[in-house]
C-alpha cells in the first residue's frame, strides 16, 4: 500500500513538472465525460440481533461519469459504478468473500483554479445508491469526498489523481434466514481517471 501511494505521488509530481500550456473547457454550458478507477482498503464491523464479526477488505471501483457545467468551474452530473469486493471475515473457522456491487447517483465537482491552467485542483463529492445479489441480497448507499489534481494534455483531455474518504452503509438480507446484517464501511481511497471535455 505504501509503495502504491508513493508511486501515485511520483506520477502526479512528474506530470505536473513536465506540463505544457493548455486551456481546459471548465466553463459554463460545457459537457464532460470521463471515468475513474478507485482502489479502496477498509475494515468492517457486522452487527445483527444474534451475532457480530469483523473483516478486512479491498475493492476496485470503475465509475464512468457524465456532467454539465452549470457555471464556470462547477459541474453536476450522474455517475454509475461497478464495484468488485474481496476480503477475509473473522468468524470461527475463517471465511472469504468475492462480491459485486452496482451503484448510481449524483455528483458535483468544483475546480479551484482558472480555466487557463493546465494543472488544476478539484474536489469531487458524490452520493450513490445501489444493490447487489448472489449469495446475499441487499441495498447500500455511500458518500464519497475526493480531492486531487487534474493535468490536461490539451483543451479537451486530462488525467486526474484523487485521494479521499468514503463512508458506506449496507443492509444485507440473509437467504433462508429471517435476519439481516448492517455493514458500515469507512476508509481511505485513491483514484486515477480521465476527463474528456466537450466544447459547446
Structural summary, described in words:
This protein is mainly beta and 200 residues long. It is built from one helix and eight strands; from the N terminus they run αββββββββ. Strands 1-2-3-4-5-6-7-8 form an eight-stranded antiparallel barrel. The longest helix has 16 residues. The N and C termini lie far apart (41 Å). The N terminus is likely disordered.
Summarize the structure.
The chain is mainly β.
Major sheet, described briefly? 8 strands, antiparallel, barrel
Helix content: under 10%
Poorly predicted regions: 1-22
Arithmetic mean pLDDT:
79
> SS-based structural class?
mainly beta
Task: Give the topology.
Elements: H1 2-17, E1 31-47, E2 52-71, E3 74-90, E4 96-111, E5 119-132, E6 136-152, E7 157-174, E8 180-198
Antiparallel strand pairs: 1-2, 1-8, 2-3, 3-4, 4-5, 5-6, 6-7, 7-8
Task: List descriptors.
1 helix, 8 strands, 69% strand, eight-stranded antiparallel barrel, 200 residues, single chain, mainly beta
